[in-house]
């Protein structure tokens, strides 16, 4: 109702003509895509393009941590020891894991099943 009265006022006014009114163009740009991109996770999870679970990523990006734990663990060099058996508790305390014993008799690196830290035995020849 008020919009109609304003239009009538402008049309009936001798002082203001519609030719002198500024033209304002509004452009709306949307950065969200209706086709969500499916980024692969560290476990290899990737949805099919017609999967209904992708609907949750239409208006926001899928957040995937690029620092995968396996890559971070691989940056830590293996701990070398002279012992045949080592124990790993993940650092101990409340942030660690149960203590496990790892046999190093076979050559090569041996990883802890909980935290992935690697251990290796130094070979000593007599």
UniProtKB/TrEMBL annotation:
Cited InterPro entries: Znf_CHCC
Domain of life: Eukaryota
GO annotation, cellular component aspect: mitochondrion
Signal peptide: none
Listed GO biological process terms: mitochondrial electron transport, NADH to ubiquinone
Domain Zinc finger CHCC-type: 84-119
Database matches in Pfam families: zf-CHCC (PF10276)
Cross-referenced PANTHER family: NADH DEHYDROGENASE [UBIQUINONE] IRON-SULFUR PROTEIN 6, MITOCHONDRIAL, NADH-UBIQUINONE OXIDOREDUCTASE 13 KD-A SUBUNIT
Protein name as it appears in the record: Zinc finger CHCC-type domain-containing protein
């Amino acid at each position: 109702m008020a919009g109609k009265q304003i239009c009538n006022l402008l049309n009936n006014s001798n002082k203001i003509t519609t030719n002198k009114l500024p033209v304002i163009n509004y452009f709306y740009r949307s950065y969200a895509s209706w086709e969500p991109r499916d980024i692969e996770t560290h476990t290899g999870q990737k949805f099919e393009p017609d999967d209904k679970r992708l609907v949750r990523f239409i208006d926001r990006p899928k957040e995937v941590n690029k620092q995968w734990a396996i890559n971070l663990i691989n940056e830590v060099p293996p701990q070398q020891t002279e012992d045949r058996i080592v124990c790993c508790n993940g650092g101990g305390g409340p942030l660690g894991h149960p203590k496990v014993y790892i046999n190093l008799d076979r050559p090569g690196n041996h990883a802890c099943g909980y935290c992935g830290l690697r251990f290796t035995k130094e070979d000593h020849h007599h």
